[in-house]
Amino acid sequence: MDELLHIKDLIIKIKSDEGSRELIKGLNLKVGSQKVVALVGGSGSGKTTAGLAILRLLSDSMDVQGGEILFEGKDLLKASIGDMRRLRGKDIAMVFQEPLSAFNPVFTIGGQINEVLKYHTRLNRRQLQERLHELLELVGLPEPKRVLRSYPHQLSGGMRQRAMIAQAIVANPKLIIADEPTSNLDVTLQAQMIDLFRKLRNDLKISMVLITHDLGIVRELADEVAVLFDGRVVECGPAREVLSEPRHAYTSELTKIL
Amino acid sequence: MTTEKKSLSQFQIALKRFQRNRLAMVCVVILALFYFGAVFADFLSPYSFQNEDRSYSYCPPMKVQFFDDQGKARWPYVRGYYFTFDEFHKRIYTIDKFKKYPIQIFNKGDEYKFLGFIPCRYHLFGVDQPGRVHLWGADARGRDLLSRLFFGARISLSIGLIGVTISFTLGLLVGGISGYYGGKLDNIIMRLCEMLMMVPGFYLMLALMVIIPPSFNSLQRYVAIVVVLSFIGWASLARVIRGMSISLREREYVLAAKAIGVSDFAIVLRHILPHTISYSIVAVMLSIPGYILGEAALSLIGLGIQDPIPSWGNLLSDAMGIVRIKFAPWILLPGLFIFITVICFNVVGDALRDYLDPTLRIERK
């Protein structure tokens, strides 16, 4: 059992008025511990859906039809709702693409990071404060006091993304699902984010599923790449190999464009 | 993109604009005075609501005199009255020239508990026995109308606040949950709401009040009225909140909250309902009059608060005969107070709606 996460033959259907359609047609993915696996694909290929499916956060119109999602050997698709809730944020955390809309505008950053700790840990007030300050330093946010007291809109895009990451790692998860974490940032910020993610993997031993269409970040960060096309993984392997010698037509197209 | 700072400052702008609206501010001040009067009713009123003197039945409002018969300035006083009967056995009150009762500030009178726990006998003003002061007249049993208005305000004004609190808690929760979960649960809840809204409110209220046993004491009755009024009021709010909840649940921060393991109920409370606040504030203000009028209507027809406990509604029930209104027009005063209160709440609610319009607050992309 060396894989942290093992997705086997995952099939997801989307229901609509015209009938149901398979969105993901048998997805296989392995994420080893302390590994960054990039899930690459064009829009509509089902990357985000797969990411949400791991946490069982699919909307009502989508339905898992078959397959297994094994996390540390346990099938998440069979876990109870309560177990899932305890796992979300604690063992598996998610980083969203757009932190401005992923943070609730009416609460402070500190309050929202605290929410995670409130549900998953039993720290007293002082310990909470210490943890938060330590954490913000780790993700590279200066002036933790001010940041914790500010509302999402009062921070810059980069700071928000850092706060988002802080929220994701606050309860020491084993796996982070990052859904396009850098696509809304400018180039210098992207580079900083890549450094930060590298730090998370190396220092905090966090594995990552990196959902992206940006091959630049894949080259920098990913250990392995899975190329998703039309609901299937068409190519999978160590990042360098896949990107330098693509075997599938879609992959070579991707590498050419970017 | 909007953000909280904008909406917060929007809120402050709304407050400033509200303060510049003279009419609305006047109404706020009037309401504040009314509620102040209700809270300190025991102290402000010269008598307790039960203090009666039959020889002052339908005594007309007394004038406060500042000059004596020679035209010299004197400490304010009221004159004594005596009455005779006319040919219809109706009392005619005449000023008794020889009796003058100076108005005493902090006069000792009926005992009461200040703020509910400090025993006290002092009233803001009053006159010494055997005189009586009825600045706004007296009712059939010679009870001071001003005092009873003060005490009636306690019931009439608090019923609106408590009723609105109950029905809004219910409406927000039910609406939020219904919209958030959707599906069958939503369907069932909404059909229930519609069934409740289908029955004309007043008749439903009457039917529910009739169920209440006549043996209930005043407090039980008060609670029953509040419960009945809130029971009728929550459904329409729940429907609106449900609609907002359906759109809010699609926001990404709701998904993000789920992703950190927040329970569904906590999501409704923390991540959905706070976003309906500006609508709710306006709706609260505009629905309080409904509760006040509801209580007044029930008490007027005798199903509400029972004598001797006064409420503006049952004070007004005294004014149901045309003859009484003709000879003692001051018993219509409670109606005036209901009128003013309702108008004030409506003006304030309207002004709030103008400045806090929920459509202005919806995030501009």
Taking pLDDT < 50 over at least 5 consecutive residues as the criterion, the unreliable ranges of chain B are 1-7, 361-365
Order of helices and strands of chain A: EEEHEEHEHHHHHEHEHEEHH
Q: How are the strands of the biggest sheet of chain A laid out side by side? A: 6-7-8-3-9-10
Through-space gap between termini of chain B: 5 Å
Q: Strand portion of chain B, in percent?
A: 5-15%
Number of helices of chain A: 11
Give the overall shape of chain B, derived from the CA principal axes: elongated
Q: Roughly how many Å apart are the termini of chain A?
A: 36 Å
Structural class of chain B: alpha+beta
Largest sheet of chain A: 6 strands, mixed
Structural description of this entry:
The complex is a heterodimer of chains A (258) and B (365). Chain A is an alpha/beta fold and 258 residues long. Chain A has a domain at 93-172. Helices cover 40% and strands 28% of the residues of chain A. In chain A, the strands form 2 sheets. Chain A has a 6-stranded mixed sheet with strand order 6-7-8-3-9-10, with helices on both faces. Chain A has a 4-stranded antiparallel sheet with strand order 2-1-4-5, with helices on one face. In chain A, β9 (224-229) and β10 (232-238) form a beta hairpin. In chain A, α4 runs parallel beside α7 (157-169). Chain A is globular and about 50 Å long. In chain B, α2 crosses α13 and α4 (145-181) packs antiparallel against α5. Mean pLDDT of chain B is 87; it is low at 1-7 and 361-365. Helices cover 59% and strands 13% of the residues of chain B. In chain B, the strands form 2 sheets. Chain B has a 3-stranded antiparallel sheet with strand order 1-2-3, with no helix packed on it. A two-stranded antiparallel sheet of chain B has the order 4-5. Chain B has helices spanning 4-20, 22-39, 41-44, 145-181, 183-198, 201-211, 218-248, 252-259, 264-272, 277-300, 312-316, 322-327, 333-356, 358-361; strands at 65-67, 73-85, 91-102, 104-114, 118-126. Chain B has 365 residues and is of the alpha+beta class. The chains are: A alpha/beta (258), B alpha+beta (365). At the A-B interface, α2, α3 and α4 of A face α1 and α8 of B.
